[in-house]
């Protein structure tokens, strides 16, 4: 969703400005910290529309004895009428895009959701959504983002107020968030005249088509040459309460390795986080097996990487797929041909279908 990336970039700088304004009492139970409404995200999927408003606060690390268990609880009130819902959220507004607007024009009108209006009030944002009550009923949840530790020893906490409009009366389609790694100026690996960011995007688009054609609800973190932040990529999966998040990459060897040595290694692997709220080692095994078998390439041992941001900020099962090894001439030749990229996408799709078939995963409750 590139249209929101500029909003996010703006929110970072504005939040930094807002940090010193936070009320940093020694007794946080008495004084409420300053909260800021810093971002708005909108997701349009085949079977649901989802709107998420970000509320943030920024506190000195010293005031939060246990940051991992701290959760910012947004203050909001809800009014429902026939075919419309109004949610008024407390917080200063950090983004001009969120204030003084009668209509939020970035919403894609759907049969479920016809419009969203925003109204700016003093220290409040009122969001009104018009929907078709024969097709959907709104559900409101809150979704936490992983805390951000700032260079000035403050911590930014963000929680989204999420309003979801899903199709009623059907078995919910499984939701897949597909993430094409890197993008924009972040090229990823570069080898054999190939750019990893481009290969990742094409593979992700091929995967998208397969999942969509089989009835899945699919959201892509990017569909062009943009570079969403890692937290924004994870947010998409968390806000949508996705069944899985798949991040598509291609592998390389360390920069300081001699070129001749780099060319010795080829094959596929997958990364997961065993310490995640919903670890996805089984999915990683299935994907690496299927990709290696389908492309007839070597498989490297899976990597348990709890330190990677995408893997430790997603509350849903997440796997990073390292499809093949870009410096190796044969892997590179294969990756450069769409027929093989299609094979790899098919393998990722088949592995995911197997995962759902053997897994007892149910939708809901993905937050820690
Ligand atoms: Zn990569």
Brief write-up:
This protein is α/β, with parallel strands linked by helices and 368 residues long. It is built from 8 helices and 18 strands.
Descriptive notes:
The protein has 368 residues and is of the alpha/beta class. The chain folds into two domains: 166 residues, Immunoglobulin-like; 184 residues, Zn-dependent exopeptidases (Aminopeptidase, 3-Layer(aba) Sandwich). The protein is 25% helix and 31% strand. The protein is built from eight helices and 18 strands. Strands 1, 2, 5, 8, 9 and 10 form a six-stranded mixed sheet that branches. Strand 3 and strand 4 form a beta hairpin. The radius of gyration is 22 Å and the shape is globular. Zinc ion (ZN) binds next to loops.
Features:
Immunoglobulin-like; binds zinc ion; alpha/beta; 8 helices; Aminopeptidase; 31% strand; disordered C terminus; 2 domains; disordered N terminus; 368 residues; 6-stranded mixed beta sheet; single chain
Secondary-structure element pattern, one letter each: HEEEEEEEEEEEEEHEHEHEHEHEHH
Would you identify the CATH H-level superfamily of the largest domain?
Answer: Zn-dependent exopeptidases
Number of domains: 2
Identify every distinct bound molecule in the structure, by name, code or SMILES: zinc ion
Structural class: alpha/beta
Q: What is the CATH first-level class name of the largest domain?
A: Alpha Beta
- Could you tell me the strand content as a percent range? 25-35%
What is the end-to-end distance?
A: 25 Å
Give a topology summary.
Elements (H helix, E strand, L loop, with lengths): L4 H14 L17 E9 L3 E13 L15 E6 L2 E7 L1 E2 L19 E9 L2 E8 L4 E9 L3 E2 L4 E14 L7 E6 L9 E2 L2 E2 H18 L3 E4 L9 H10 L4 E8 L7 H4 L6 E4 L8 H15 L7 E2 L4 H4 L5 E8 L3 H7 L2 H21 L10
Parallel strand pairs: 1-5, 11-14, 11-15, 15-18, 16-17
Antiparallel strand pairs: 1-2, 2-10, 3-4, 4-7, 6-7, 8-10, 9-10, 12-13, 16-18
Helix pairs in contact: 2-8, 5-8
Bound molecules: zinc ion (ZN).
Zinc ion (ZN) binds next to loops.
